[in-house]
# Entry
Amino acid sequence: MQLARVIGRVVATEKAEGLEGVRFLVIQPLDKRQQPMGGTVVAADAVHMAGTGELVYYVSSREAAEALPVRFVPVDHAITGIVDDIQVAP
Amino acid sequence: MKVGTVVGTVVSTINIPLLDDHRLLLCDIQDVDGEPDGYTICVDVVDAGIGETVLILDEGNSARQIFGLDTGAIRAVIVGVVDELAIDGELRSVV
# Structure
């Protein structure tokens, strides 16, 4: 899993089967110092509570499809938790 | 699997149920020269400490086996604490 900052939201009514009710958030992947790393991606919010500006962590590839209640939903990034506290050695 | 170094801790109360009651540690992934090459947040199952050199599994199927799950959004798991690491016959310093 890696860190990311939630920076936006995507609403799509026309979408693939199995994606009903899935909340899509735009996230900016971060390095361990919480600096932007690479381009933004759209992730499914598997905790249903992440809001814009929050520091979260996410999983990618097949595990993202396993993060949602309905198994094997076509997503490749999924937020699996919101960071309350993070300590990283200098 | 990869060799890494535990450099941080991540605490969260809102997360997918699978991660409840598990310690999350942030690890630098080491390249062959021992330099950091990216990082990953891992579930710790061996009580690794900050600064320790560890063995990191980063593949879903094996990770799910560790937790006895057939489905679950889990990939990175710390599966060992490294006592000794030798590359090309040269012993690497291991905390």
Observations:
- The helical segments of chain A are 62-65.
- Chain A has one domain: 2-82.
- The longest strand of chain A covers residues 2-10.
- The CA atoms of residues 6 and 53 of chain A lie 5 Å apart.
